[in-house]
Design a protein that fits this description.
By secondary structure, this protein is α/β, with parallel strands linked by helices. The protein is built from nine helices and nine strands.
Length: 234
Amino acid sequence: MGVTNYKSLLDQIERAQPKEPVCLVTFNYDTLLEDALRQFGLPINSFEDYTKSHPFYRVFKLHGSTNWAREIDTDAPIQIEMGFEPESVFALLMENWDSIRVTDRYLFSPHDWIGVNARKLMFPAIAIPVEKKRSFECPAEMLESLVELLPGVSKLLVIGWRATEAHFLGLLGNRLAGLRGGIRLHVVAKGEGDDVRVRICRALANNPPASFSVEPGGFTDFILGGRVADFLGD
């Protein structure tokens, strides 16, 4: 595997020798982060691996993933054949949409699509980006783990996130409200870093950051400058 910004980010986190959990929260659907984590002792082959299998990495994909799905319940007499092509599965779902119910039973798969598993229909677990969305697309246990860890956060490094998801901003505000002294915030969002900082500080109005800074460049510049370890190590 080639060098990616994710791999370089994790490499610099490792150099900081963290002794507390490092929460990696992402709204991306792809598996680039998982691919990079595999090289740092965290092969993710199940939902438990995201939050329970590494000494300090805890991974949270709040908008779902290309290799997650939800099981479907249906009252319709649907004939399911093993080996359905994705197009055939989705056409079947659309044809019977009125009779199906997407459950909260999640399935993890090593593949990048899921249609039929164990003769059960599966629906892609991917959230449509909506700023005022009131729920997350992830197993309840994953969200519970994040909620439990947030009050212990001391540093918040934001990379490429526009901070427009009201639901997550509300979660941050509620869970960080009691943190003594506030967090240290650093924003990496080329061209709109100040706007992102303002949105986050507004969400944390009950306990403003103790300090904040904005990266003038983007993700690559931040990584190449080696400033991740500096931020985490201070």
